[in-house]
Write a structure and sequence with these properties.
Blueprint (H helix, E strand, L loop, with lengths): L9 H13 L5 H14 L2 H10 L1 H9 L8 H18 L8 H20 L9 H23 L10 H11 L3 H12 L28 H23 L3 H11 L7 H8 L3 H24 L2 H13 L1
Helix pairs in contact: 2-3, 4-5, 4-6, 5-6, 7-8, 7-9, 8-9, 10-13, 11-13, 12-13
């Protein structure tokens, strides 16, 4: 079984490629016999012969993805994984050549490797994004080549017409085209990249932290505790039925419906709604009264009312 490593020299890769391209491809009956021997009998010699005969497919397809800047050895390795998947899944009952079936698996395996390794940010997760990643440049070159011949080419930006044509061809929206074009024309930026040549600052020094600072966290925790205390005091001043409605409708993850509460309380759902509205109004009034007992909150409320 062929194996590739990053440490292989260029001559090693070339030697393997020449060997793969010289290996004769199988006739339909031969590949059928080898596939049956592997699938039904676990014959590893048959598997090795099948894989070796179609190694040229791996080389040919891997070469088409060299423009993405990934090592040829890695691309061929991933292609061989796809070839193995094809051998394991090939259905000999269908009237399909193994080479046709294997081509799909080899290409899919290489494409998945490119998507995972082209950038540290996952590039394509949906079918539309994958189609954009692998076809945007080709479609853009074709459309812009036509525009250049007509003297309508903008050499920097994708024109609205070009975006719309690409989106229509790949059945995606224009926004996806814009996002993918920006990602393909950009590059991964290290957070430790220097901003100035003197080396005094790097990129991460200028990133803004949007998370709350310690003071804000403490204040939020304190305010939450106070509001919880006020709510407890206010709830105790409601009657039992009102407390149950508020608890079941607003203080549970699985909030009860008006109809369910009506059945439990022996009243109509409209009556439950009326009681809920009244109880919420009471709670608001009771909590505002507690807030007014806190000097700084009362002063803030008076200021807000004066400004309004």
């Amino acid at each position: 079984m062929a194996h590739f490593d990053d440490n292989l020299t260029r001559s090693d890769n070339l030697r393997f490629i020449r060997g793969a391209m010289q290996s004769p491809m199988l006739e339909k009956d031969n590949e059928f016999e080898l596939a049956v021997a592997w699938r039904e009998k676990g014959d590893e010699k048959a598997l090795h012969k099948l894989i070796k005969s179609y190694a040229r497919l791996v080389v040919a397809l891997a070469a088409k993805f060299r423009a993405y800047g990934l090592p040829m050895g890695d691309l061929m390795q991933e292609g061989h994984i796809g070839l193995l998947h094809a051998a394991n899944r090939f259905d000999t009952s269908r009237d399909v050549r193994f080479s046709t079936y294997a081509t799909w698996w080899i290409r899919a395996s290489i494409q998945d490797y490119v998507l995972r390794n082209w950038s540290i940010v996952r590039t394509g997760t949906t079918a539309g994004q994958k189609a954009l990643f692998f076809n945007l440049r080709r479609l853009r070159a074709r459309i812009e080549g036509k525009a250049a011949r007509e003297g309508k080419l903008d050499p920097v930006m994708l024109s609205p017409e070009t975006k719309s044509e690409i989106a229509g061809a790949l059945k995606v929206n224009v926004h996806d085209v814009e996002v993918m074009d920006a990602r393909l024309t950009g590059h991964d930026q290290s957070l430790n990249a220097l901003i100035h040549e003197d080396g005094s600052h790097d990129f991460q020094d200028f990133l803004v932290d949007d998370s709350p600072n310690p003071e804000e966290l403490i204040m939020a925790h304190h305010d939450g505790s106070v509001r919880h205390q006020w709510l407890g005091v206010a709830m105790r001043q409601l009657d039992e039925r009102e407390r149950r409605i508020i608890r079941d409708r607003h203080l549970r993850d699985d909030a009860a419906t008006l109809e369910d509460l009506g059945k439990k309380l022996g009243i109509s759902k409209e009556r439950v709604r009326q009681l809920e509205t009244r109880a919420m109004s009471k709670l608001k009034t009771l909590m505002q009264e507690q807030a007014e007992d806190v000097p700084y909150l009362a002063a803030t409320r008076q200021l807000e009312e004066a400004v309004a």
